[in-house]
Amino acid sequence: MPLFTRSLPSAQRKAAGETDSTAATEAAAPPPGQQDLPERTESVDAPETPEATEATEVGEATEATEPADPTADSADDSAADPVADPAERSARLPSRAGWFGWRTRFPRTARGVGIGTTVLAGVLLFVALLVPDRLDRITIQSFFRFPVEAIVLAIVLLVLPAKARRIAAVVLGAFVGLSTVLKCLDMGFYQTLARPFDLVFDWVLLSDAADFLKDSVGRSGEVLAIIGVIVALIAVLAGSALAMVRLSDVMARHRPTAVRTTLVLGVVWIMCFTLSFQVGGVTLATKGYSTFLANRVQYVREGLGDADVFRKQLDVDAFAKTPPNQLLTGLRGKDVLFTFIESYGRVAIDDPTMAPEMDATLKAGDARLKAAGFASRSGWLRSPVTGAGSWLAHSTFLSGLWVKNQQRYRTVTTSTRATLTSYFKKTGAWRTVGIVPGVRKAWPEGKYFGLDNIYDSTHLGYNGPYFSWTPVPDQFSLQSFEDLEYGKKNRDPIMAEIILASSHNPWSPIAHTIPWNDLGDGSIFYKIKKEGTNPTEVWKSAKRVRTEYRKAIQYSVDSLTQWMQRYGNKNTVLVFLGDHQPVPTVTGGTSDRDVPITIVAHDPKVLDKISSWNWTDGLKPADNAPVMSMDKFRDRFMTTFAK
Fold it and tell me: Could you point out which of 157, 259, 297, 573 has its C-alpha 20 to 30 Å from the C-alpha of 623?
């Protein structure tokens, strides 16, 4: 007879008990023809236990009756426990054997793995709910808090029936995973732009990020990074969904305990929140995840309504109806150069670790300009962006509108709104050109800025290497401007927009100034790049990043002031400014968006016209110099030089 059999429902066990005596009697009588066979004896290696006796008796009863119908078993189970949850009933059945039957072969290991998986699922979801969306706010203490959202999720999963609970667990888990991905995006954006990811406007920036990776680490590095991001995205979504399903199943199997625990924790959370209970200075009860989601919803609502607000601003232009012969009359006959120095922010001047070297650079620049007969005045502008987004700052400065996101940029560059540069062109008194070494592909927006000719990185005559993101060193870009436009004889006055890109992130390796006559076709920069730093090594230390950033700004300022000393003349008017502050790694996470701006001129009448602006003499603006919003500069400049 078999020693082990499937456990029977209680009803069948009773029926089996009633037939035990009959079965025993029938089994005692030998079959006909076998009375004379010798009696077989069985050795017993271990004492018989009550459990073994019960199993034996059940086995004999099973042999003596017809095989049970599995369907009948299930029906009897349901009848015996009519209120049991299907998931709870399924938990009472033998567990799956697992691959190669390892669960049956190693039951203790299987139990340990099950407990470990449940704990891991709980930790994963708690981390997803508690992790901040900024790297500088992630501390050990931030994870020793209790989120109210965990209690809410438990309540939802406990009140739902089995099928709905499983679906809800998958959906809620995937949602928590998506929010975790959004937090990771926020971390990256806070590190570069000092703001969270905008769900309405920022998707296009992901393509720009891929281009930046390609320029910094090559095509293969870009592809590997994209694959890694996709794999990580799938892993986060799947992991969070599976974790939620796992905890849901555990609560279903232990429903009474789960209900009591949830109620107790809910009461404890309410008490801790009401009393602002803290542990080690950290508030224990938190609803930070809900606040995070509420803020994201608010950002989306504001973003969707921003288009209408901006269109109304777009139609307001104080100079739209001004006759061309009355525009910018105070600058007629002058060469006006609007020059942007990438990432040249207030931190380069104010930061104590950079100030001594930058002061020396600015003083040397002042000396060069004075030796060539120039004077200068400086102030501050407040940029709409920080960390990145140069094109938004450029369009803000030139259009006179606060272009703070990609939607506004697209709207203004496809409109008829006039820019500072297009007003110069409208007068017919200037040839307008653009030196834009950072542009390496089609740039249809360039037409909007009213430039007669645009020289991108492929039209500057440069045959040297890239310096990480920077396609052309600043000194070479300025020399190309001289050779292609400014140095021509018998030309019309020029209005130029010049972008100096050597101070673009990652600031490694960077070029250094060389004798102007040695620039040639730029091939000399191969040697200079080889002598430079490795960006991978530089970015291992925030201190080194700040040092290389400061050197890049010094190089840009030196290149510009040397060019002015070498090629500037009595009709040259230079307006140079930073477009935005550098990334938080350099600024230390400050919310300050100020950038320096300087006007340099040989003709004293030019600077006399801005005397009412109260700017500081020289290239370095005073700490308390006036701060003007960048979108206000266009109208103020045009009003000042209208006569």
Answer: 573
